[in-house]
Specification:
It is a single chain. With 271 residues, the chain is mainly α. A two-stranded antiparallel ribbon has the order 1-2. Strand 1 and strand 2 form a beta hairpin. The protein has helices spanning 40-54, 63-96, 115-128, 134-157, 161-179, 185-190, 192-213, 216-229, 239-244, 265-270, and strands at 2-4, 10-12. It has 2 domains: 2-55, no CATH class; 100-270. The longest helix is centred in the first third of the chain and has 34 residues, at 63-96. It is elongated.
Amino acid sequence: MELNNTPQHKSFLWHLDFEPFTWHTFYGEQCPPFITEENKEAWKRYLIKVIKKHMKAEVMNTPEFRDIELQIREDKLLRIKWDEQRKRSMEKQRYRAKMERPRINYIPKGLSVDYEEEYSKYLMQEVSFEPRDNDDFMAQLRLLERWHKKSIPQILEKNRPDAAYAIAMALCKHIPLLINRDDIQELIGEYKRRIGKLIFDSYQALVEAVKAWNHEEKCQEVCRYIKETARQFPNHRGMKKKLMDLMPETPFEGGPMAVTREPNDIEKSLL
């Protein structure tokens, strides 16, 4: 307890007490089992007497006291460091929140909604994000990788190859917008190998999605797209051939997998 005697000097009061231990107690050290309801008052008076005996100015010159003072200073510096790290982390999270993150298995509702257009809204945020350092750029890449690593597989598990196809096609179309940006060419070069994997995995996800859909018309569309765009990655040796090799060699048999779209709220009201 603080007692303010004058504007220039602060005096302090201290007291010692024993409180019952509960799970809602947020302060104090737990007493050893030999301190009981019957003897806690005796212990209190004894400890007060001991503390008064040792509360002298010369104690501050002892090695034990100085060690404690040093520990307190170190603890304070550590708390300051942790607070600064926490503030920086929160600020980074707020900055990166410019890139929205839909659910991993997100599928837009609507009987006539353009899936590719809907997913492109998120992808455009990701490829146009302005990283301030390597950590920001890695967060940007992880969000792009998240589409082919997690979203597309989970959406295929929901038997929605049409939505998976739309994600993969939008992803393939947006990657060049990232790697051709003049303002981040140094980062693009530094993470060239990882970006190369992102390119290949995205095209591979596109082919796997159209295979799962068993949609011959869309397959021909994919093949045309690969032929037209495989050459746009000259900085990645052998990428053109790798992408061309992904194209299905034989036509699909049977018709496309049937998919059922979920109407949005407006469409439900009209049904």
